[in-house]
């Protein structure tokens, strides 16, 4: 046994409520946009919004159910969701991933991926710079050749790729 007091966990009420509300919002957005593009049948088959509309309905039903259930049982026992240390670990991964997604739009997927890989290798793995440089440049190069050259699938590029003619 350690002499340190046990850390109080974060309850599951708010995380469950917020995730259910977020998913309900996403579902309503999917339904709205599906209605905009059409959910019926055209001469050549289903319209673009047909399948997303029904997926949105299922997601809205499930998240709405969870939202209502959480509100109805609000005063019931609040089981542990995670400790603050565990949430800190999640945030240590979540924030760089959000920055990565934003950087894809600004500088392209290949440079953003190199930066993300380098960040995680240095911050969470404490690898040496030589290995970080090799892996963080090698992995995006590998995916460039696989997707852009082999499968002919274009991925988002930024100003650096345009500068070197990719």
TrEMBL record:
**DUF1468 domain residues:** 18-156
User: Pfam families, from UniProt?
Assistant: TctB
What keywords does the record list, in alphabetical order?
Membrane, Transmembrane, Transmembrane helix
Q: Does the keyword Membrane apply?
A: yes
Q: Which InterPro entries match?
A: DUF1468
Look up keyword Transmembrane and say if it applies.
yes
Which residue ranges does UniProt annotate as crossing the membrane?
12-31, 51-71, 91-117, 129-147
Q: Where is the signal peptide?
A: none
Q: What is this protein called?
A: Tripartite tricarboxylate transporter TctB family protein
To which species is this protein native? Rivibacter subsaxonicus
Q: What is the lineage of its organism?
A: Bacteria, Pseudomonadati, Pseudomonadota, Betaproteobacteria, Burkholderiales
